[in-house]
Specification:
Layout lengths: L16 E2 H7 L6 H9 L3 E3 L2 E3 L5 E2 L4 E6 L2 E7 L9 H4 L3 E3 L22 H15 L1
Antiparallel strand pairs: 1-4, 2-3, 2-5, 5-6, 6-7
Helix pairs in contact: 1-2
Length: 134
């Protein structure tokens, strides 16, 4: 009988980091709990293989695919995180391979300058409303 740790895909000398922890350190999710939920739900793929364990050993060179805010993100891990630092430090942990996406949503309506109706506008609206019902 062989020991189960001998068939581990990651060598013991290579440093690794938990997948959920890395996603949180790289600032893809606001809390580590959200990252854990996403991974545990089976929504993350590592090199094309679905992963459902938040404690998956992540190492540099792997490619992650996961949904984030109505987009599918494709990320290549460049380095492991030591801490959850500022955004500039977090951006050095990965290379974004996500293709540029066209904005399918229409732009937000602009302000027409009308603002709140005046008393005269409200009075006219109330008078005109009665004539439409008759």
């Amino acid at each position: 009988m062989t020991a189960p740790w001998l068939h581990c895909p990651v060598s013991m000398s290579e440093p690794t980091q938990r997948l959920d922890q890395w996603l949180w350190h790289a600032r893809f999710f606001k809390t580590r709990g959200l990252a854990t939920k996403l991974v545990a739900g089976g929504h993350v793929r590592v090199d094309g293989e679905r992963v459902s364990k938040p404690a998956y050993g992540l190492r540099p060179g792997l490619t992650l695919t996961f949904p984030q805010a109505r987009r599918i993100r494709v990320i290549r891990v460049e380095a492991l995180a030591k801490r959850r630092g500022p955004a500039s430090e977090a951006q050095e942990l990965y290379a974004d391979l996500t293709p540029p996406q066209e904005n399918d949503l229409p732009p937000n309506p602009g302000f027409e300058g009308k603002g709140r109706p005046t008393k005269k506008d409200r009075r006219n609206a109330r008078l005109n409303r009665g004539s439409l019902l008759e």
